[in-house]
Structure formats: structure tokens, C-alpha cells
Here is the input.
Amino acid sequence: EMGADERVFQERIERGVKIEPKDWMPEAYRKTLVRQISQHAHSEIVGQLPEGNWVTRAPTLQRKAILLAKIQDEAGHGLYLYSAAETLGVSRDQLLSELHSGKAKYSSIFNYPSLSWADMGAIGWLVDGSAIINQIPLCRCSYGPYARAMIRVCKEESFHARQGYDIMLALCNGTPQQKQMAQDALNRWWWPALMMFGPPDGESVNSAQSAQWRIKLFSNDELRQKMVDQSVPQAEYLGLTVPDAKLKWNAETQHYDFGEIDWSEFNNILQGNGPCNRDRLSVRAKAYEEGAWFRDALAAYADKQDRASGQ
Ligand code: ACO
Here is the structure.
């Protein structure tokens, strides 16, 4: 049974009016948003690592400048999202300590290694491509600060996806060996990218409530299907083969049918046992520790400015 406050809140959501930080909200709504927004922020920050690995080995100066800009964008996305989470009454320090201790989740996709330059292409094309599919609807979600943050994030993500596809295109128009690198990257990133959308609808414990609150406008499986439908023709244009023997256009549904996802791989990653989980967390924690002097200096400088202005 809903209380009076909750009924007003739910009606407001159904009318499409955004919920703002100082508005009344059910405690569970606040908790759900802190969970999702903080996981999302952590994903952006940890997501810098697989690509940071290739900055010093980018094939040209131009590719290097583009990659650096993209990685900086991801840091910016993390910061907007931590700020959005802070409007819900949690501190950034608390969120970061949950990330560094391994308690907080971040996207499964960032626990895979980036083995070749072609991975920068596949990540931009498939991983950022999937992020866009997931995040465009979030621009219309019920919580104002999250929805607004997503608008700029999505614009930047579309640059990221294009730079990735451009790398794939260059490799596929290159030597047979370069094309093989692109195929190998597609083979390794395809299935993990499909897992980004989360468990199948039947096992998605948070979906029903998040849909009622209009945090989720489409289900995990609906968005995953969109990603397959969008990416298969792009793979064909590149002349690459999607690594799924069951992939087939279905004229009746007007969608591609595709094979079974290996959910044991996904669950293993969520338990912290993916190929790079430990490495990602230790690199993050080390970067945070090594940045302590800089945060201290910023705080000391801010204090000095306050004293100088007599505050
Ligand atoms: N990686 C890690 N954990 C996941 C993933 C994933 N790909 N997908 C689902 N999970 C987790 C959920 O967080 C949830 O665990 P929790 O209850 O402990 O938080 C559990 O699996 C069950 O999943 P759902 O009930 O389906 O969870 P939810 O309703 O939150 O849906 C989704 C998951 C679709 C990822 C949602 O949280 C979302 O849209 N998040 C915002 C987008 C985002 O975080 N993107 C990050 C990657 S994109 C990028 O940064 C480039």
C-alpha cells in the first residue's frame, strides 16, 4: 500500500515531471538511484583503464590525440555522475571507498584486457555504442540531475563510438593482417558487449521497480536486441563476421535472432573473478593514493583563498 506522499510522488512521475534533489522521495527510490548512478560513475572511471593502456602505443599522433580526448571525456562523465549521486546525500569519499574496497559494482565490460590496437576500435564501436543505447533513454529518466547529466554524456559518447568505428574501418581497409586484428577484436568484445545490458529480463531483480519509477524506460533484453540490430549491419559493412553461428535475420519479428549468452562468464565477473578485476581495482586504488598530495594541495589552496577573502 502506498502512503499519501508516495502516491503524489508516483503520480508526478507518471505525468513526466522530474524529481529534484530537495523533493520528497521514497527512501528506496533514493537508494536505487545512488546504486545505479554510483555504479555508472565507477564504470566511467574504471573504463579509462583499458584504453589508457594504449595511449603510448597509438599508431599516429592524431590517433593518440583522439584517444586522449576520449579518455578525458570518460573522467568528466565520472565526475558529473558522482556529482549527481551527491545530490542524493552520499559523499564522494564514501562512494570511492566502496569502489576501492571492492564492495561497489562497476560495469562487467571493463574487466577484460585490451590486447591490441584494434581493441580501441572495438571498444569505441561496441562498448561505447552499447553505452549510448543504454543511456539515451536515461536522458528522459525521472531524476532530474541524472537525466540532465546524460544529455552531454550521450553527445560525447557518440563521438567515442564514431572514433571507434573509424579505427575499425581503417583496419578493415588495410592489410589482411590489420583486418585480422579487427576480426580478432570483434571476436573478443562481441559477447561481453551484449552482457553490458545486464541479466535477462526474467532475472533482472531491479527492473520492475525501476520501470515503475521511470528510471528504466526499456528492459535489459529490449536494449540488448537494439544493440544487435544496430551492430550487425555495421559489421557487414566492415566485412567482418559476428562470432555467433546462430545469428540470423528474422523477417517475422524484424529483428536478428542470436545465440545464447554465457551467463556464467558474466556472473563470474560480478563476483570479482573476471580476467582483470583485481588488476583494475588495484590500479584505481593506487592512483587514488598517489593523488592524495594533489587533493591536499587543492584543499589547502581553497582554505588560503577563503582566509584571504576574510571568510
Ligand atoms: N556489469 C556489472 N553489474 C551488472 C551489469 C553489468 N553489465 N548488469 C547488471 N548488473 C548488476 C546490477 O547492478 C544488479 O546488481 P545490484 O542489485 O547489486 O546493483 C544486478 O546485476 C542485477 O541486474 P538488474 O536487476 O538488471 O540491475 P539494474 O536494474 O540496475 O540494470 C543496468 C542494470 C542496465 C546496467 C542499469 O543499472 C543501468 O542502466 N545503469 C546505467 C548505465 C551504466 O551503468 N553503464 C555503465 C557502463 S557504460 C559506460 O560507462 C561506458
